[in-house]
Amino acid sequence: MVGVLIVTHSALADELLLATQQIVGEIEGIEPISIDPTEPVEDIRDRIKKGIKKVDRGEGVLILTDMFGGTPSNISLSFLEGGKVEVVTGVNLPMLLKLATLKDEMDLKELASYIVNYGKRNIHLASEVLERKSEEVKGS
């Protein structure tokens, strides 16, 4: 099983995990790390390092961050290690819901790549989706 850390600004990591668990129930091997902007960088690094050790079951750890270039992402990138730790930025709820079922079925690299594409495919402009649905109904 690939371990998962959610590393974000403020309480977003905690809330994303809470929302995921409200939908699919308890999930093993996923931990949130919410970062306070006043927290020293070394303290953040230590918490991420401990988080990696906590969720690592020998098949690698996927770190999900909220945005590329932000403190959570920049610090997480220092742990990037081929085959052992991957970092994906732009975490969203659909990604976490899918991870709940796939983290036991894929290796780290495959899972990271799949989750990136899955997250992108689940971002929509609602008016366009509704317009397509309306056209499909009219065409039936």
CATH fold description:
Rossmann fold
List segments where confidence is low: pLDDT < 50 over at least 5 consecutive residues.
none
Q: What is the CATH superfamily label?
A: Phosphotransferase system, mannose-type IIA component
The first-level CATH class is given as: Alpha Beta
CATH architecture descriptor: 3-Layer(aba) Sandwich
Secondary-structure element string = EHEHEHEHHH
Domain unit count:
1
SS summary, helix count: 6
Biggest pleated sheet: 4 strands, parallel
Report on this structure.
This protein has 140 residues and is an alpha/beta fold. Helix content is 52%, strand content 16%. The protein has a single domain (3-139), classed as 3-Layer(aba) Sandwich (Rossmann fold).
Question: Summed up, what is this model?
Answer:
This protein is an alpha/beta fold and 140 residues long. It contains six helices and four strands.
Provide keyphrases for this structure:
6 helices, 140 residues, Rossmann fold, 4 strands, alpha/beta, globular, single chain, four-stranded parallel beta sheet
